[in-house]
Amino acid sequence: MATVIRLAAVDDDRMLLDGFANWAAGVPDLRLVGTGATVDELLRELAQPVDVILLDLVLRDRSSAADNVRRLTAEGHRVLVLSVWAQPDQVIATFAAGASGYVTKDHDLSALAVAIRQVHAGQPVFSTELAFACLRDDRPARPQLSAREREVLLAYASGMTLKQAARHLGIRHETARTYLDRVKAKYHDLGRPTRTKLDLADRVREDRFGVG
User: Fold this and answer.
1) Strand, helix or coil at 26?
2) What own/partner pairs with CB < 8 Å and gap ≥ 24 does 146-154 have?
3) List-wise, which residues carry 4-aspartylphosphate (predicted)?
């Protein structure tokens, strides 16, 4: 007997969800067990992890696709992202956040079923669009900063002196310098030297550390 794959879907298009439910009901190894217009709505509904969650890239609540992927994977779900287009930055961001696949909505339902089975089997779904996006990924590597390292970086790069940044954050000047040295070392290890305050301001802008 074939394994039945338990699915859930996040999409704010009710007509699309209804159509998907009708289609899945006719596929023997797929079972749709939950839907939601937002990630919050779906997580409230699900009592336990499902095998694969289909996640629409752009939702009306303006939530970040990458953040949505991170939240769902943190709950133990595998995520297959669906989108009407293949936008390179979005493709890369969702995979970096832990998505198992990315499929554009111009594929037919049989192709979607194949993608779902691949994700369930632990295989990443690589489409032509994804390969193209990865080839175009020229973003520099972003260091993993602690919360305090990031705070010192943002305060200092905003124009404060290190002493002002320390006072602003309620820490000692020597402690702030230690955090800043760690930030510089992490960038150096990635081949992105940050010797001056201007360099650090450039890194903040490049890596969007001031966003979110």
Assistant:
1) coil
2) 146/179, 148/179, 149/179, 149/182, 149/183, 149/186, 150/209, 152/176, 152/179, 152/180, 152/183, 153/179, 153/180, 153/183, 153/200, 153/203, 153/204, 153/209, 154/204, 154/209, 154/210
3) 56
Q: What is the DSSP letter of 62?
A: -
Q: Is 1.10.150 the CATH classification of the domain at 147-207?
A: no
Identical fold at 5-135 and 147-207? Answer: no
Q: Tell me the CATH class for 5-135.
A: alpha beta
Instruction: Please state the pTM of the whole predicted model.
Output: 0.63
- Of 3, 34, 22, 49, nearest to 109 by C-alpha is 22
pLDDT tens-digit profile of 79-127?
A: 999 988 766 667 777 877 888 888 888 888 999 999 999 999 988 886 6
Please calculate the CA angle 25-29-34 and round it to the nearest 5 degrees: 55
Domain extent listing, the chain: 5-135, 147-207
Distance CA 77, CA 4 (A): 16
